[in-house]
Design a protein that fits this description.
By secondary structure, this protein is mostly helical. The chain is built from 7 helices and no strands. It has one domain. Helix 3 runs antiparallel to helix 4. It starts with a helix and ends with a helix.
Length: 124
């Protein structure tokens, strides 16, 4: 629970600073959760379609969170199957979003990542 709160705090700070996702900032490649903060923010303001655009799994955040919080009440085998289901859902959603050239939320632009830009700057 503390780790989840720390991650949310880190992402919130990065968002306020305009950096956004640390993975995308470093690599130029969106992560599986890319758009989740914007989707959550949109959902909290009642913008359901916008939330779905930013990340379609935003509607599953609360059930996923409950699943993790109720770990001790769920049989271990069932819990693991659920976790793998969550991972599979994010993976499939990520692949579909990455393959969609019209999607502007999830991008593959390693040339824009700070790592490539630093190496490019060092080589000149």
């Amino acid at each position: 629970m503390i780790a989840i709160a720390a991650i949310i705090l880190l992402y919130g700070i990065l968002w306020i600073l305009g950096t956004g996702c640390p993975i995308k900032f470093l690599t130029g490649v969106s992560c599986m959760g890319c758009g989740m903060m914007r989707a959550s923010w949109s959902l909290m303001h009642g913008h359901v379609h916008e939330a779905a655009y930013f990340h379609p799994l935003v509607f599953a955040v609360i059930p996923f969170g409950l699943w993790i919080l109720l770990k001790k009440k769920i049989p271990e085998r069932i819990y693991r199957i659920g976790i793998w289901g969550i991972v599979l859902a994010f993976t499939i959603t990520y692949i579909i979003r990455m393959a969609d050239s019209a999607n502007t939320v999830v991008v593959f632009e390693p040339q824009n990542g700070i790592i490539v830009r630093l190496f490019r700057g060092l080589s000149h």
